[in-house]
Amino acid sequence: MTAPVAPEPLAAPVIDTHTHLNLHDRYLHGESVPDPDELLALAASVGVPKVVQIGCDVEYARHSVELARTRPDVVVGVSVHPNDAARIHEERGAQALDEAIDEIALLAREDVVRAVGETGLDYYRTGEGLHAAQQHAFRRHIDIANELGKTLVIHDRDSHDDVISVLESQGPPERVVFHCFSGDAAMASYCAGRGWYLSFAGPVTYKANDSLREALAVVPDELLLVETDAPYLTPVPHRGKPNASYLMPHTVRFMADQRGAHEADLCGLLYANAQRAFGPW
């Protein structure tokens, strides 16, 4: 598949707060799988000089930590993804799931790891019989974030009420990021009232997502983030092709237009928010 052409550089730097450099594979790219350093260099060339790399199973988390140790433009989040939590529980049992999360807890102590996540709930791909396993994994990740003072990065798909219920009952850490926010304006207002960051990705540019754009409109400036979730969720005009951090200018410019903001001003805001949400680097 032909990679999209790089957009014009942004007016000021912005940080991609959620990407998966190690999930670019042959399924997406054929034989021309991009090297992580190539992806980082291309992103920097359009005004995205830093990224938060998310490793969402034990193997990818280890790889992500190793990748970040020699790349000062990368920091990391580590977790067992909700869907993987359900799969491990179903295939190998509750003890195996806890052992995997124990590994994540050890990795989360690394200096390059700024976040625990993406964790949370995903009822779109997981049947009701495994919801309890996901909730158990989510609670354990919340505890790790609280113990280590790390940012909590939340995955929430078709599970808004339960995500908030578990988060509130377990006790949210100081910094919470709803990655690829998918709720409505009412949920955005609730999260903002709790001081939680809301991160928007390519879906905000999709024609059918009016409720997501309504949510974008009510997020306070100081809690707004942007991401790619690459290689997924490619923004318009390249929807359907592999995503990467260098395509984030499309989402940033769309957000600026929706919020009636100057591009440079929004870039500065998003950069500063990312540094607060994950710590400066």
**Tally of individual domains:** 1
Mean pLDDT: 95
CATH architecture verdict: Alpha-Beta Barrel
Largest sheet, in brief, is:
8 strands, parallel
CATH homologous superfamily placement: Metal-dependent hydrolases
Structural class determined from secondary elements:
alpha/beta
**CA gyration radius, whole angstroms:** 17 Å
The CATH topology:
TIM Barrel
Report the total helices: 11
Poorly predicted spans: none
CATH class: Alpha Beta
Q: What would the principal axes of the Cα set say about the shape?
A: globular
Number of strands: 8
**Major sheet: arrangement of strands:** 1-2-3-4-5-6-7-8
- N-to-C CA distance: 34 Å
As a percent range, the share of strand residues is 15-25%
Report on the structure:
The chain is of the alpha/beta class. The chain has one domain (15-278): Metal-dependent hydrolases (TIM Barrel, Alpha-Beta Barrel), CATH 3.20.20. 45% of the residues lie in helices and 15% in strands. The protein has 11 helices and 8 strands. Helix 3 (58-69) runs parallel beside helix 5 and helix 5 runs parallel beside helix 6 (131-148). The protein is globular and about 50 Å long. The mean pLDDT is 95.
Summarize it.
This protein is α/β, with parallel strands linked by helices. It has helices at residues 26-29, 36-45, 58-69, 82-92, 94-107, 131-148, 160-170, 185-193, 210-218, 248-259, 263-278, and strands spanning 15-19, 50-55, 74-78, 113-122, 151-157, 176-178, 197-200, 224-226.
List strands and helices in order, with pairings.
Layout: E1 15-19, H1 26-29, H2 36-45, E2 50-55, H3 58-69, E3 74-78, H4 82-92, H5 94-107, E4 113-122, H6 131-148, E5 151-157, H7 160-170, E6 176-178, H8 185-193, E7 197-200, H9 210-218, E8 224-226, H10 248-259, H11 263-278
Parallel strand pairs: 1-2, 2-3, 3-4, 4-5, 5-6, 6-7, 7-8
Helix pairs in contact: 3-5, 4-5, 4-6, 5-6, 6-7, 8-9
